[in-house]
Design brief:
70 residues; mainly alpha; two-stranded antiparallel sheet; 2 strands
């Protein structure tokens, strides 16, 4: 199997977000950021398809349901 090259176009503010994610995750390059993001996205979709619900809890203990997509 050979790798496929995908070209994407981003606005400067989107590249800044990618740079921040790259730094926070200590990724070597943008490809690693996208591979990890894809893995998380697939997991979220799988869990949602199984009927699971996601929540957050703030510092005061308040729980909020997260709607990932409508």
């Amino acid at each position: 199997m050979t790798d496929t090259i995908v070209t994407l176009r981003f606005k400067p503010e989107q590249v800044a977000r990618l740079d921040e994610l790259k730094a926070k995750t200590e990724s070597d390059d943008y490809a690693d950021v996208f591979k990890n993001a894809l893995r998380v996205y697939e997991w979220l979709i799988r869990e949602t398809d199984e009927g699971k619900t996601f929540y957050t809890r703030d510092g005061d203990g308040k729980i909020k349901i997260i709607k990932l997509w409508e």
